[in-house]
Amino acid sequence: MDIAAWLRSLGLEQYEPAFRANEVDADVLPSLTAEDLTELGVSLVGHRRRLLTAIAALGGAVSTSVRAAAPRDVALPAAADRRQVTVMFGDLVGSTALSARLDPEDLGRMYQRYRDACSRVVARYDGHLAQFMGDGVMVYFGYPQAHEDDAERAVRAGLDIIAAVGWLRTPNGEPVESRIGIATGLVVAGDLSTQEQAVVGETPNLAARLQSLAAPGNVVVAASTRRLLGELFRLRALGGLTVKGIGQSVEAWGVEGETPSASRFELVRAH
Q1: CB 62 within 8 Å of CB 115
Q2: How far apart are alpha carbons 185 and 246 in whole angstroms?
Q3: Mean pLDDT for the chain?
Q4: Torsion angle, CA of 169/128/225/208, rounded to 10 degrees?
Q5: What is the enclosing helix (H) or strand (E) of 128?
Q6: More confident of the two residues 264 and 139
Q7: Residues paired with residue 82 on neighbouring β-strands, in sequence order
Q8: How many CA atoms are closer than 13 Å to the CA of 142, on its beta-carbon side?
Q9: Closest to 34 measured CA to CA, from 178, 165, 156, 163
Q10: C-alpha torsion sign, points 247, 248, 251, 254
């Protein structure tokens, strides 16, 4: 892969000397993080976001990029325990209609490209890709590996998945879109080595319901996640939503983008 040509295709050729000086090649590129790009001199949020989106949309074997982005082994808990976990659910919009229009082999290849893009993004934010279910994906942030900013990681991953999927096209040239729901809460986390759902509680159900209510190309978060985000993102209040299986209305917010600021510390604590 010609890194210089790839940067030119994005209109970001000014960063080619920095990439070359730091020996960023095709093997290193899929594992770059926002922090890496900042060190490379990509100071503008818009340029970093454009680069991260393009990196997520790159082709290639999922296993290679996942190993590059998360080379360490995570020890799996031996027994169930109670954890605070942020759960993400995502799917492809209109997949049923697509399956009626596309040849099954073409549909399968499109699903694989979608899954590849999701896997690369999730690995970059150190989430756990729990399960693919047809055109759906379920991801845990905070289990088995916990971080103090798991809610933020989940939202950033959601935005990047939405953007990466936006680069995909069906064989007929049709654009495809994703939608994502995110919720945070206390769960019982079980054995990830089994095929059963490892995280049990209201949180996964709420994330799945919010995903089904999200508009195409949108990330929707529950109040439990919103409280942890401070002012890091531009959020639009959606009011109380009627969610199937939950007796009372649920407050939710749509994520419209990142809040540009030099001080992450202040934004996290502003809400």
Answers
A1: yes
A2: 15
A3: 80
A4: 60
A5: strand 128-133
A6: 139
A7: 188
A8: 25
A9: 156
A10: positive
pLDDT at 135: 81
pLDDT over 80 at 175, yes or no: yes
Q: Which tokens sit at 101?
A: 């229009």
Q: Tell me what the mean pLDDT of segment 105-116 comes to.
A: 86
Half-sphere exposure of 82 (CA within 13 A, CB side): 3
Residue with tokens 């290193």, as numbered in its chain: 28
Q: What is the pLDDT of residues 95-106, one digit of tens each?
A: 878 878 888 888
> 120-144 as b/e, with b when 16 or more CB fall inside 10 Å?
bbbbbbbbbbbeeeebebbbbbbbe
Are 262 and 166 in contact by the 8 Å Cβ rule? The answer is no
Lowest mean pLDDT among 117-121, 159-163, 169-173, 258-262: 258-262
Q: What pTM was computed for the model?
A: 0.68
H helix runs in the chain, sequence order: 3-9, 16-21, 34-39, 45-57, 62-69, 95-101, 104-124, 150-165, 202-213, 223-229, 264-268
The amino acid at residue 140 is Y
Which tokens go with 1?
A: 């892969």
Domains in the chain, CATH or no CATH each: 3-58 (1.10.150.50), 76-268 (3.30.70.1230)
